[in-house]
Amino acid sequence: MSSKSLIFIVVLIIGIHSYGQSPNVIIQVNDELIISGIAQTKINISEGGFNKSFWVDYFPGKLILSQSAWEMIRKDSIGTFEFQFDYYTFKGQKSEIKNFKIVLSKSLLWGDYLIINIYDFRDRKYRKWYGPYTEKDYLVELKYPNGPIYARYK
What we know:
By secondary structure, the chain is of the alpha+beta class. It contains four helices and eleven strands.
């Protein structure tokens, strides 16, 4: 292997690791995979009386966090944190925006996969099926290995 190839490989590895981590995360709304239509994706971490926010990127199958966000999440004092994003939809010709906030833990991100399925109660069918579980106008179901699921009301 030439020295140029070795230098390229080292720089590539350092570049990948310096940006951060990419947990295997899939976001669905009403059982449909979200490929586009979300913005303002960030995580909010509260520690010792102060709040810190980090912008994140999402592509189906990847939630891309910066190295500084990972360092904050890995702290022993951090148990849970909030992941939030704006979801853009159209109803007829009218654009609608809904903000979703999801409480996550670091163990969920370190798992093999995490599917975040949000039941948006603007759709009457999902309000009827899952509305009794929460006072909010949406329900978050986290699917991960050996995780629980919600039963539908009929």
